[in-house]
Amino acid sequence: MSSLSINLYEYVRDAFYSMPVFSDSEGRFVNGVYGALFKLANTMQTEVPESATLIKNKETFESLTPAVKEQVLLFIDAIKAVCGEELSDQDEKITFTIQNKDNIISALKEKMALFSPTGKANENATFTLMMRSTSDLNEVEAIFGKALEYGKKAANNYVAFYLMTESTTSSKQKNIHGLALCFDESEGIYIPVENFITVDYLGKKLSELSKQVSLVTFDIKESFRLFTPNEFEKRDYGYTGEAEEQSDYKNVPRCFDTLIGAYLVNPNKNDYEPSDIAKEYLGLSLEKKSDLFGKKSLAEADEKTVYEFACKSAFVFLKSAPLIRKNLVKYQMEELFYEVEMPLSYVLFSMEKEGIIAKSDELKAYGDKLQVRITELEKKIYDAAGCEFNINSPKQLGEILFERLGLPAEKKTKSGYSTAADVLEKLAPEHKIVADILEYRGLSKLKSTYADGLANYIEEDGRIHTSFNQTITATGRISSTEPNLQNIPMRTELGRLIRKVFVPKDGYVFADADYSQIELRILAHMSEDQGLIDAYHEGKDIHGITASKVFHVPFEEVTPLQRRNAKAVNFGIVYGISSFGLSQDLSISVGEAKDYMNKYFETYPGVKAYQDRVILDAKQKGYSLTMFGRRRPIPELKNSNFNIRQFGERVAMNAPIQGTAADIMKIAMINVFFRIKKENLKSKLILQIHDELVIETAPDETKIVTALLTTEMENAAKLSVPLVAECHIGTDWYEAK
Q1: DSSP state, 700?
Q2: Which residues, at least 6 apart from 621, have a Cβ–Cβ distance to it below 8 Å?
Q3: What's the pTM?
Q4: What is the DSSP string of 229-259?
């Protein structure tokens, strides 16, 4: 028997806060009860439950405001009136059976009308689109002609398209089965790739449209495999924030990516799909592509299902683009969208397409070298334990360490002893076996993730083509997947050696530049702390200067330990570290760590004032801002749980700094890429890792590329302290780094 289960009080509360506020003739707020009835009716339309349970939670009820409590009671009265004798109201829950779903839905809508400000219940939005498919060349030509005629009338006359693609044996290549166009809200047309309609033909048509029409789609980076929009084809300038070109998007046709736009508005959601856009912005229900087709090939799928899904998707992008853009304007992120994120999507596509050479023979040799050491460690661990066991089994490892060898253990749980890295690191001085286990774990991960794992991503051209993602992290940082090159190890020498596997093409070299302490420099700028600003202008070692000031010793007499501690504090402050967290990092008492932090804030009082200021600002506004206007909503700041609120405060301290660093890196990438294009160089930007850029450099362009890379990175933003980028040349990535 299928049953619908609802948390009653949360249901009404969430409905109240997600809708515009309105009241009835008696002055009572009723938008919450209306929204809850609306949600329930829609849920029952899409599901077929035989019964429903409304769960009561007294603690939740007590936390509600009087206005919401009143609406809960109104909602319960409405449900009782609808269900009558079928309902059972108990202390902890309300249950009712659903004998006739249609009758209940109809009764719910009648109740909704009583609470509606218009006097009638709103219907759930549905597609009213005429959809068809055609591969007749003359008809297709006419359709593109009409799209051009409509779109060129105004920059805001969007023409939406959606590519129907599916992956091939190579995860980075996708077959294009067809394209849906929608520019008239009443009709969507699907154009399959068949007969005279080729992929190249569709690409040329989109390219022509982009010269005079604002095209809109979802995840435009995938579309660049088909065509290059006019705005990028002709572009030879980077980001300045001042040039006339930077305001063209207000008057000149530009492409619009609904995925990037929706992500900017809500960066806490990192998995947008077209179905999410449809629901969030239009209230429409659009199936997920994966749910609709599963593992079935599009060639095998029902033709009508294919073209209807494509047309609906294009319609969603057409209708949602103005709404998303309205939000971008409201939140003052339109320039960030058009002048940073949109050109960046083309830069990332170009980098993905270029890829980086990975030598499979050296990768194997690296793996073999790791295996030799792994085998040695296995033997040492078995000898120390007095028996062989599965080192990778937390249960067996816990029994060996804490029962057989008698090492001090944290409290045993039902699942056994904890053998997490932080637990073992504390025990390492107690017994040599623990240090060997930690090394074994590290090397095993290196071998499986990189030595063995990377080999699976080397394609026929000998290159790894990672995917760069710009809509995943809440801070705005670029991430890398399939494979994740952002996590290439740097802490140990053996880990760093993996970079020797990555090489440029014959005769070329790598130019590798990374920012020096970019987040600390941003902290100095944003906090306006004069002491920190002066320290950077002195041009000395910032960690040495901080140690000198915090520990009150001459700069020349700072010890390595004092410098290490000052470095931990410097970087910890950026991330809003607590005294407990710092004590764990430095293996000192919480009291000592607190003392270090107090001395730091005494030395740089502007930093503490800045942190207090951004936390208060985020609490009042509900979000943080970067220098370039990127928003990071922080709902955790209003959570009733203390630990979650504390996390929110750390986010409020860090997000403006880390987000600004991300913005600066993106601007640097745009400037470097289009400068290379303007100079008509053979060299190519191929990789971005955190604060680092790598260019595959032609031998006769080394000097110009080194200067170009350093200059563009250092001038990507104007701060009150110098931005410094250090560039190195190498015949492999290890040597260049």
Answers
A1: G
A2: none
A3: 0.81
A4: -HHHHS------SSSGGGGGGGTS---EEHH
